[in-house]
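Structural prep section.
Before we set up the soaks we want a predicted structure of the protein with 4'-deoxy-4'-aminopyridoxal-5'-phosphate in place, mainly to decide which crystallisation condition to try first. Input record follows.
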Amino acid sequence: MTRIVYVNGAYKRYGEAAIHVEDRGFQFADAVYEVIEVLGGRLVDATRHLARLERSLRELAISPPMRESALLHIIGEVIRRNRVRDGIVYMQVTRGAGPREFALPGPDVLPTLVVFARTQPRGRADRLAETGIVVKTVPDNRWERCNIKTVMLLPAVLAKDAARRAGAREAWFVDSSGTITEGASSNAWIVTAKGVLVTRPLGQEILPGVTRATVMDVAKAEGLRVEERAFTRDEALRATEAFITSATNIAMPVVTIDGQGIGNGLPGPLTRRLRSRFHQMAEISAV
Ligand code: PMP
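Run finished without errors. Recording the tokens verbatim:
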């Protein structure tokens, strides 16, 4: 449950927190966001998440609402005021509010900042990881700047709904050449018969996942081989393991894709290993 939300300089009760009706985040999805895992009241991989937030803002020329140290202070306050031990903290920065106009506003329009936090006991994801999840593939109909973490999430919302209606928990986007780009809200990975981890290289077609980067660090420390290359849906169906990475899922086994079992249909040993070592490798910082 979220009790307190930070909005533009004030800590508001959840039911009373609000932004302007002409906020550009609301009207144009002219906004970026981040989700950071909270573990034992501390932040997981904050440096990488805040660096990505800064990059997203820079790519869209939205002014940072404040210095990183001030943002971290607010993040800490929101976590404490919501008494979150294990869960997530969400932050969103929009280009601000003003009379609806496509043209970008001048410097007098200040960015909007919203921060909230929510408890999400780790047990649920851990139980899900015991059985693994089902994935459905869908055509990738997103724009060409998926490396920016914008709130323009309608394609992901619809893809996840199509997945849910097919009994799947995550959708994997497939581009026009038949290769998997990424999940609707995660990065996509497979393991080959030779035990090589494969995930798409960074580029405009995917979000540079923070969990993806840290899982790569874990893989290297474990002496596992990682190949950054595109893989097709067919190759994924023939893989020995598949999994997704995201801040809330860590490394989550994928056991079925489009109705077909992956490997022996159970969470794979390498995915389990990456998942269990993840928090030893991640940066865990107090706020
Ligand atoms: N790709 C997309 C499209 C996402 O929405 C997310 C999660 N926000 C990810 C990948 C995973 O990113 P991260 O590991 O930083 O949570």
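Observations: Residues 156 and 185 are 7 Å apart (CA to CA).
Flagged for discussion at group meeting.
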